[in-house]
Amino acid sequence: MPHPLLVSSDNKALPIWLANEKTWPGIAAKLPQNAQAFAKAQKFEAKAGSHCLLPDTDGNLLGVAFGLDGDDAKRIDPFLAGKLSSLLPDGTYRFETDAPDPALATLAWLLGSYSFNRYRKRSEKSVRLVVPKGVDAEEVSRIAEAVTTSRDLVNTPTSDLGPDGIEAAARKLAEKHGATFDSTIGDDLLKKNFPMIHAVGRASATAPRLIDITWGKKDAPRVTLIGKGVAFDTGGLDIKPASSMLMMRKDMGGSAAALALADMIMGAELPVRLRVLIPAVENSISANAFRPGDILQSRKGLTVEIGNTDAEGRLILGDALALADEDQPDLVVDFATLTGAARVALGPELPPFYTEDDALAAEIARYGEAVNDPVWRMPLWHSYQSQLDSKYADVNNTGGPMAGSVTAALFLSRFVSAAKAWVHFDIFAWNNSTKPGRPEGGEVQAARLMYALLKDRYGS
Ligand code: BES
Ligand code: MG
Ligand code: ZN
Fold it and tell me: Is residue 191 among the annotated active site residues?
């Protein structure tokens, strides 16, 4: 079903003239005299991101002029025109002049109209768009729905979305696509040998769990997605300061990204054997919490010394990666809000990713750029492996004070050996401020690019 803001045609739709500072004078010259005069009176010059509502001779709305970026390819934001869905009055519009990438402009239109309204009444805006020529409305709608559903998960506070809420969301997704769903909860995690997931999550009033979804033909290429599902990260006993804890409801952003990608893959019926693993826990503080200095067993067989209970994501992912690895998938992809250090390195908009597979890395960078889902490769720098040495165990869960995102990725790498390829995304899962197509709040990062890559790779 196409998105409610998309219409296939409407001959009363108001035109949007997309222009830049160079093309605007030519476009303006063809407009009715009064509209030209009005734009001039407002000193509208089609500067990037600016807009001007134009009147007809009766004072009704004739259309809208909007400024795109100039010609500097490196600075062009293909989402820019999507800004209009949050600016314009309710109505139906169409692009009179082509957007540089009509599909991405349409997607940004939908993604930019998102707001998180669960806790207050807001009158819903309805700024509709006629699907531009050549744009696949089903496809854009599928992506927008997957992203916005997952944004809701990230934005929902832990009081309404604990580990059980993550499970409910995953179950709903599995049902939507007729996938097989399984969840291992509480002490069953010990019976089935997921000691680290249990240790991290056992102090919460809501039991830890490992969600396991499978879908698709058995003999198809095997793709396994893993998402960090920490419903809330207090830091555990090595407790976070208040300012760092404030946003930690978003620490399940990796699971939201994995679910969004799974929704796209299954919705498009890509010919893969899909598995989605989500360790869902709350990193809480209680008498039975795991402690700094504890040594944990792990599914992989490695013993893990706890340098800091706040490095919890890599522990639950370690057990999930070990399980994923057991059926030797063709590709393992994990998404995790794993480190603050990733933000120090690259900031909130550009998640680092890690893989040993150079060809895959090149593809990821290319698709990230192509679909405006930017990421940046960082190295699994092997000589830093020694930062994870432990005096008593096989490995420590913290490295030194430097290269924190790299050492976290190196920790994960210890749990992957049989998969043919593995990539780890250290995502932020949040927009700190509103940008076109990216409203402030929870965000899905790196899922759209992986969908584009898998779609091209496996065809359909
Ligand atoms: N969830 C955090 C990382 C995080 C913080 C992601 C802020 C996004 C924004 C993670 O569990 C964590 O606490 N990591 C520690 C690791 C450290 C104790 C080795 C960190 O990055 O400080
Ligand atoms: Mg933590
Ligand atoms: Zn965390």
Answer: no
- 42 neighbors 50 (Cβ within 8 angstroms): no
Task: Give 238 Cα–ligand 3 centroid separation in angstroms.
Answer: 12
Amino acid identity, position 238: D
In eight-state DSSP terms, residue 156 is S
Q: Which CATH superfamily, name and number, covers 141-458? A: Zn peptidases (3.40.630.10)
Domain chopping of the chain, boundaries: 6-135, 141-458
End-to-end, the C-alpha distance of the chain in Å comes to: 19
The structure's pTM equals: 0.98
CATH of domain 6-135: 3.40.220.10
Two tokens, residue 455? 């779609």
Nearest CA to ligand 1 atom 17: 311
365-404 b/e with 16+ CB inside 10 Å = b? bebbebbbbebeebebeeebbebbebeebbbbbbbeeebb
Tell me whether residue 240 is one of the annotated catalytic residues: yes
The Cα 63–Cα 35 span in angstroms is 9
Please state, in angstroms and rounded to a whole number, the distance separating the CA atoms of residues 90 and 93: 9
| Distance of alpha carbon 438 from alpha carbon 416, whole angstroms | 33
Q: Which residues surround ligand 3, an ion (CB under 5 A)?
A: 230, 233, 251, 313
**Rounded CA separation 33/133 (Å):** 29
Q: What is the rounded distance in angstroms from the CA atom of residue 165 to the CA atom of residue 36?
A: 54
At 260-299, the pLDDT tens digits run 999 999 999 999 999 999 999 999 999 999 999 999 999 9
Catalytic residue among 314, 343, 438, 448: 314
What confidence tier does 110 reach under pLDDT thresholds 50, 70, 90?
A: very high
